[in-house]
Structures are given as C-alpha cells and as structure tokens.
Design brief:
Phage tail protein beta-alpha-beta fold, transmembrane, three-stranded mixed β-sheet, Jelly Rolls, about 300 residues, sigma factor antagonist activity, FecR_C
C-alpha cells in the first residue's frame, strides 16, 4: 500500500500536478534525487513511432464489438507513469550495480573481473567495484590484501584508505591494513599514490609505509606473494603485524606482551598447521605459547 501511494505521488509529480517540494514530503531527498537522474536518462531515449489515428480506428472497431468498462484516464496515466519510472529505476540500479567480494578470517578466494583480470583475495579482506562500463573505468576499492594479475587495457586503479595504485597491465600485490600500506610489483610497472606523492615501482621492487615511515626496496626475487601458496613471509616486519596476520589466517586471538610489538621479525609461517606456525613466530624471541581455549593463544 505504501509503495502504491508513493507511486501515485511520483506520477502526479511527473504530470506537473504537484511541486517537487510536495513530493519531498512523501519521498526522501535521496529518492527524489535518484528519480531525477532516472528521468534525465529516460529523456535521452528515443520512443518508437506511434500512429495515433490508426490506433484510434482499431480501438473504435473493437469497442463496436465488445462492451468495455469505463476507464478513469487520469488514474490510468498515473499507473503508466509509475510503471515507466519503476522500469527505468531497475535499469539504472542494475547498470550501476556494485560487485562485492569479501573474505572472512582463515579464508582466501580467487575471482575474475569482467576484463578477465584475476584477483587473489587474502583473509579478512574486501574488494568492491561497479560493473557498469568496467572496461573503460577499471576502478575498484580494497580493504585488506589482494594480489592482482591485470589484463592489458585502460588504466586499472586500486583505491585504499591509505593510498592508490594504478597500472595498465601487470602483476602486483597491495596491502592496506591499519597503519600498514605496501605495494609489491612482480611484473611491469606500478604507480602508487601516497599523501599526494606518486611513486613509480618497477618489477622486483616494493614500496612500504609502516606507521607513516616510508621504505622503498629493489630486492624482490619472487614471482608472486607467498600467501597465495599458503605461506606468509616477512622481512624486518614489526612483530604486531606478524601476530595479526597469523590471527587472520587461523581465526584465533593471540595475547602477547606489548613490549614486543615493534620488535622486527624476519621469517615465515605456514597456513596449514597452527602449531608449526606458532613455533615459527615464537622461537626467534625465545617465547612459549599456551592454548587458553581452542581459539585463544597466549605467548609468554
């Protein structure tokens, strides 16, 4: 009933029988704004040719043969107008559909974008993009970590809360978590933007930002990130980040002394064996681990 009332008010507005101010008493600002966009798009479409005289002849012929119930023309036009708006609303929203991929803790997924670019999404991460005109506007947003194999084409941009990455066709990894931003280029050339500064990152190089401190390296020899092979590796990384990554991969909580947070860790851990992973991050610091519960671990 509510939808019918809204459609009637909408139809009256389309027929210039009520003002926009009156319409806003029954619809929200966002709804009115959206319908105005739809109408703008619909005005650009060309209607098919309609022969009114021929249609009237056919209608009169039919009426002479069949008794027809009297129709309220005004109500009929309201309904037609409402249906037209609903149709264009469906077209508009479907065309601007946002695709969303999200992983939970201890989960990784791989998927293809409309241009056949491939995305490997690490645990506790999210990618969003609009499907409309994707090949011309290859823009997506990332929270967490993902590895991209980008098909050649127009500029491909990954937007994060910490910085953006742009390429044409290449392979690269992006991490944007908390105060950590990292871009590693494995093939081609990557352009990263951080705080209005643009950094060119060639293959075999990485750009990192940890707690607002930047670091550029040219010592990458791997052909891709280790995490897609179920192994997380680190080079001089703060211990807090290593622990956080292990928590993400195993969906557990780890308690440890905060004095260790900024100690640097170089090494790796597997994603397939929790006890071995815990040994890998505790032995270098002469720590022990204890299972408080099945999903809670304490380091001491």
């Amino acid at each position: 009933m509510k939808d019918m009332k809204e459609n009637n008010f909408l139809a009256k507005w389309l027929a210039n029988e009520i003002s926009e101010a009156e319409l806003k008493k029954h619809l929200s600002e966002d709804e009115v704004r959206t319908y105005k966009k739809i109408i703008s798009h619909s005005n650009q479409l060309e209607a098919p040719h309609f022969n009114a005289e021929e249609a009237l002849k056919k209608l009169n012929l039919k009426n002479s043969r069949t008794k027809v119930r009297k129709l309220n023309f005004t109500k009929f036009m309201y309904r037609v107008a409402a249906i037209i708006v609903v149709v264009f609303a469906s077209y508009y929203f479907i065309g601007n559909h946002t695709k969303n991929y999200r992983t939970s803790l201890a989960q990784k997924i791989t998927f293809n974008l409309p241009d056949k670019s491939t995305v490997n999404l690490n645990a506790d991460s999210e990618v969003k993009y609009k499907t409309r005109n994707w090949k011309k506007n290859r823009n997506l947003s990332l929270k967490g970590e993902a590895y991209f194999k980008v098909a050649k084409g127009s500029k491909f941009t990954v937007k994060t809360a910490l910085g953006n990455v742009s390429v044409l066709g290449t392979q690269f990894n992006v991490v944007a978590r908390n105060n950590y931003f990292e871009v590693i280029c494995y093939e081609g050339l990557v352009s990263a933007t951080y705080k209005n500064n643009t950094i060119k990152i060639p293959a075999g190089s990485s750009f990192k930002v940890i707690n607002s401190e930047t670091k550029f390296e040219k010592t990458i020899t791997a052909s891709g990130p280790s995490w897609i092979q179920n192994n997380s590796s680190f080079k001089s990384m703060p211990y807090w980040y290593v622990v956080s990554e292990l928590e993400r991969q195993y969906n557990i909580t780890i308690e440890f002394n905060n004095t260790l947070s900024n100690n640097l860790f170089t090494g790796n851990f597997t994603h397939n064996n929790l006890k071995n992973a815990l040994k890998a991050i505790t032995i270098p610091f002469n720590l022990n681990y204890t299972f408080v519960t099945n999903n809670k671990v304490r380091l001491n």
